[in-house]
Amino acid sequence: MQNQSNYWQQYRLEQRIRRGNRRTYWLQELSRLKRAGFTVQQLAQDHYRINGELDFYLVHAQYHNLQNGKRGKILHNLIGFVRRAVADNYQYRQSYEPRKVTVYLPED
Fold first, then answer.
1. Domain with 54 in it
2. Which among 18, 45, 84, 102 would be 20 to 30 A from 94, CA to CA?
3. Could you tell me where the beta strands, DSSP code E, fall in 8-104?
């Protein structure tokens, strides 16, 4: 029983270290984005907005594209991913045609 308890204590310690390393990695990637000319705004402790178009969550390296609604996980190379996402958003905006709406105002 003691062996199993020691095993789980060691496992939890290793997980904490691994999470800390992941956080450091993603913070370095966000720094690279800033140096590359992207705007990075911190919205919460682990929530960042990139170029006003892409939300990035450090905890699980997840993203949410605010322009087209896509969500997912980023495995590596944040700067390459952001460049592709911004280019896709540009094309999305160019191909988007606003709906024509007829508004009827009441007559006085």
1. 2-95
2. 102
3. 40-44, 47-50, 54-57, 62-65, 71-73
Q: Which residues of 68-102 are buried (b: 16+ CB within 10 A; e: fewer)?
A: eeeeeebeeebeebbeebbeebeeeeeeeeeeeee
Helix (H, G, I), strand (E, B) or coil at 105: coil
Tell which residue, 41, 43, 93, 30, has the closest CA to residue 67.
93
For residue 59, the Cα-to-chain-centroid distance in whole angstroms is 10
State how far the Cα of 48 lies from the Cα of 71, in Å rounded to an integer. Answer: 14
Total number of domains in the chain: 1
Q: Are 40 and 30 in contact (CB under 8 A)?
A: yes
Mean pLDDT per 10-residue interval, the chain, length 108 residues:
82 83 88 92 93 90 90 88 84 64 71
Angle made by CA atoms 61, 65, 68, in degrees to the nearest 5: 150
